[in-house]
Amino acid sequence: MSNQPCHIAIIMDGNGRWAESKGENRTFGHERGAEVVRTITTYCANHSDIHRLTLYAFSTENWKRPKLEVEFLMKLLERYLKNEKITYLSGNIRFEPIGDLSIFSKSLRKVIDDIQNATAACTGLLQSLALNYGGRDEIVRAANALRDSGALTVESVGKALDCQHDVDLLIRTGGDHRLSNFLLWQAAYAELFFTNTLWPEFSVDELEAIIKKFKTVERRFGGLN
Ligand code: IPE
Ligand code: IPE
Ligand code: MG
């Protein structure tokens, strides 16, 4: 039997470089990147062997960027979640953020809450956006939450994380070969695929090609096949 890409996670990298290569401001790349999020999410929603799609949208380290870029990303996120409600509902897609949302503005948190509540009964794809997300931060928050509950186990820590599901297929666009603090726990046995394609140019065709390759990989999980 071939592998099923039940949980796909993507590090959507390269927006800024894509825009700059066109002589545009980095924000232009983020705008285009948001359109690709819609395309890839819709594709995954239409494929029943894909149950979860977790997308890295803003890391705990991305606050280091210039204030104007951070402000733009916050506004873009708010606009995207408002405008795309129809995409989620018509595609039966449930939205669930991961990350520490407490740092966001009240208005952004309200939009995040709204879309999460509005899609709570959707039974198709579960799409998670990682927002102010860092794998280390997630593990530390989980460990703190469990502080008074005795000895920790792999199961108890796993259940206290924002994202409680192992990743099957992890893709990074943009040419770099690193995790940048994404899903450190959940990617323990993920298959890693790296592509030089910048996120605004990532396509359904390329995702299909990666999934095809993923299906042929022998996953041993430490055992022998
Ligand atoms: C990824 O693209 C999007 C975010 C991190 C918000 P980048 O903005 O990192 O684009 P590059 O990597 O600088 O080209
Ligand atoms: C990772 O990309 C974060 C997101 C895609 C949201 P970065 O561009 O922030 O990663 P580094 O700085 O190149 O490692
Ligand atoms: Mg980058």
Task: Put the structure in a nutshell.
The chain is α/β, with parallel strands linked by helices. It has helices at residues 15-21, 26-45, 67-83, 85-90, 106-118, 135-145, 154-160, 204-216, and strands spanning 7-11, 52-59, 94-95, 126-133, 169-172, 191-194. The protein is built from 8 helices and 6 strands; from the N terminus they run βααβααβαβααββα.
Can you characterise this structure?
The protein is of the alpha/beta class. It has a single domain (7-133, 167-214), classed as Decaprenyl diphosphate synthase-like (Undecaprenyl pyrophosphate synthetase, 3-Layer(aba) Sandwich), CATH 3.40.1180. The chain contains eight helices and six strands. It has a six-stranded parallel sheet with strand order 3-4-2-1-5-6, sandwiched between helices. Strand 3, helix 5 (106-118) and strand 4 (126-133) form a beta-alpha-beta unit. Helix 1 (15-21) packs across helix 2 (26-45). The model has no long low-confidence stretch (mean pLDDT 98). The structure holds 3-methylbut-3-enyl trihydrogen diphosphate (2 copies) and magnesium ion.
